[in-house]
Amino acid sequence: MKGIKYQLKNIRRDKLCILTFLLPVLIGFALSLLSDVSFSSISEITFGIVKNDLPADTVDWLKSNGNVTVYQKTADLKEAVNDPSSQMIGVLKNDAGIQTIRSGDELQMMSIIGDTLPLLFAERHTVSQYNISMIPLKHNNDILKPLLIVITLVTAMFMGCTFNAMNMISEKEDGIIFINEVLPMTKTQFLIQKLLLGFTGSILSTAITAAVCIRVSLVQLLPLILLILLSAFIAALAGVFIGHFSSGLMVGIVYIKIVMILFLAPPILFYLLVPSGSILHKVSCILPSSAAFYGLMDLLNGKSQDITIYLVVLTVHSLIWLSLYRRLSLRGQKHA
Amino acid sequence: MQKSLPALIKKDLRLMLSSKFFLLAIGSLVLYSCYINFVYVNIDQDIFPVYLYDPHHSLESLPSFVTKADSRKELQEAYSDGYSVGLDMSGATPKICMISSGSDKTDNYRAAYALSALSSDGSSHAELIGKNDREMKNRREITSEFLFFELSAVGFLGLAAMLFKEKHMGVIRIHGILPINPNIFILSKLGLILLSDLVFAVLLTLFNLGINAGISVLPAVLLQTGILSIIMALAGFFCAISLPDFKQFSLLYLILAIFITTPVFLAGQTNLSWSWINLHPMYHLFMAMKNAYFHTPVANGTYYTVCAAAIILLFLLARLRLTREMTKEG
After folding, report:
1. Nearest-CA distance A142 → chain B (Å)
2. What's this model's pTM, rounded to 2 decimal places?
């Protein structure tokens, strides 16, 4: 217990370190302030038109199908259509009705929309002859905002990893590791001391961020807490691993960078590209961050049937990595 | 004084070699190139599939994009993925069925698109006005992003790592006693980082854009690379000399890597319009880099003037801190 007290004392002097743990909280706060509207409009189609070119009813029709941006001149419109970051479709008047322009670098969906829009416009009155049965969404289908929130949460968890790794490496560089070896302290005590700091830090940081930007029902609260606890534990453990293996600061940075990329990139990629029922989706749970990521994503989207699986996966991960580290450090002890 | 520059450069180069700086750069190069060539280039989004249930065979010919469903249940399963649209022709009035996408406008469009399956006999094509196809656009876009991220990371981190190593070894203390021109001290590090960044930019561009397209954008890209590399390296130098240890620095770096560059990417990548993004200095650097890859000259005189001013200011700040540190140690 005394060791942990000293460790805490050591951090308290480190103001910047406390600040970094607070940073995800600030980002979460900013995210929760951003309105849903600005995000949901991304998925809508954008049409660009030139001022005083199209008749008013055509503009109304375009407005009912997507967002319309008005430009002063045709040249401005062409520039906006060509802008690589936009998927805008330009609409101009011609004899038959409308003529579309696009830049040719769009996603397949947008290029088909651009090509078929004049046909749809010609047949616009037929829609009223049909019954449309629209099944409303059970939950908000906005992908981007939950994604940003979850990325922030996973980053908050990752702070524990960085902190632990840096803490251990700097002790190595300062030679405190030799003092530790002489001190009457078992390997387990050492591990607990090192783990606990990053662990508590990332739990606090993640929990506050979650409280700021996630609204969950009472039933989901327990899974959420368990998810945060387990993932923060694995992150802290990863930090201890990095600290154990890296000889110096630069090598440590390289490892942290690799682990950070592995921590953040594959889950996002798999989430966006791989359908959730497929085998690849299950295989991707080999990475602990994927399980955490999917679990958080499901909680945010109001689904909870798979959450137990993710929790079990995370528990298995923590046990495996913990026993692996125990074995590693025991082997080190024999050598010493 | 003039003689000490080559010696300093030689020492810094050795330091970079021993800290596996180049290994890190080569590793990143391979990782990014693999990602671009095998994953990112293939990213696409298909249009909503249309499913048709037509028991009375009231439609003779079907366009190729319509899939037939044999029963109402099959149709229901097909459109319940939330993306596809179902057309039910079994009743007196045909029905369009779908799960709402959350946006009324998109839903209207989906209904209209599905209907075009029933009555389309003409065909229309949009006029193409761009120079890139989707693959080339993806390549240019992601290469510019990776280069930007890597430059802001490697320049910042690489120089700081070197400096902390030297601080640790007591080099600053030695220079406190054996004075050295601080300009040369900074320049030798800056030059090496700049050189390695330029080489990195050339390789990344050629690997991912191809030789012809790569060479045509290189002059503009190298100019932006130079500006970004110098700014980030000087910022890294300043932070490293001001902060007491590397632990704090690495946390600061994490913030920079994730939280400062993410909004920049979001604003540059999607057509999200945030008015405050114009106040974000990195956004302008990123857009200049991206425009260089797309042959669009947007960066103007003001941009270059501000960049030059920033470089001079950062250089002076770094020099001031270094001189102060040397006096303190000596």
Report:
1. 8
2. 0.75
